[in-house]
Design goal:
Elements: E1 11-15, E2 19-24, E3 27-32, H1 43-54, E4 58-61, E5 72-80, E6 87-93, E7 98-102, E8 108-111, H2 113-119, H3 124-127, H4 132-146
Antiparallel strand pairs: 1-2, 1-5, 2-3, 4-8, 5-6, 6-7, 7-8
Length: about 150
């Protein structure tokens, strides 16, 4: 098994459930729902996600289909500078393993939990820097609860 068979070249866009990351020059821009557009991206989290996705390594081929009822699930549509059509990733997480499929392979693979967290667990809120006002009110609320 070639562990790097899902590895990607230059990414140009990533579409998640509530966001779309689009590469513009050397920068990434968030285009999303619920006023996500225009929010400042958390460059650390975006960088972690991009690195994990570009260098995604599979651990093993799944030969016995797991029971995915009630599993965590995420779908990403990814475009590279060489793809003619988007690559569709489907991620699943059970108590035992994390799994991935991609539309250009007729197989399911296991992946590391850390890669699942960096890629599939992301949403617009996690990819953006939260405004200072909401952080302060959250801290104020927490200190009031402790009093």
């Amino acid at each position: 098994l070639d562990n790097s068979l899902l590895k990607l070249d230059e990414l140009v866009s990533i579409q998640g459930a509530d966001y779309r990351l689009q590469k513009q020059g050397e920068d990434w821009v968030l285009q999303g729902q619920n006023n996500a557009q225009g929010l400042e991206l958390d460059s650390g989290k975006v960088g972690d996600m991009l690195y994990a996705l570009k260098d995604l390594r599979v651990r093993k081929l799944v030969t016995d289909m797991p029971d995915l009822a009630g599993s965590g699930y995420a779908q990403l549509s990814v475009e590279t500078d060489q793809s003619e059509k988007p690559l569709i990733y489907q991620f699943y997480m059970t108590k035992e393993n994390c799994y991935v499929t991609r539309n250009d392979y007729d197989a399911m693979f296991t992946i590391d939990w850390g890669d699942y967290e960096k890629i599939a667990a992301m949403d617009a809120a996690k990819l953006t820097v939260q405004p200072a006002a909401s952080q302060e009110s959250s801290q104020e609320h927490n200190s009031n609860e402790q009093s």
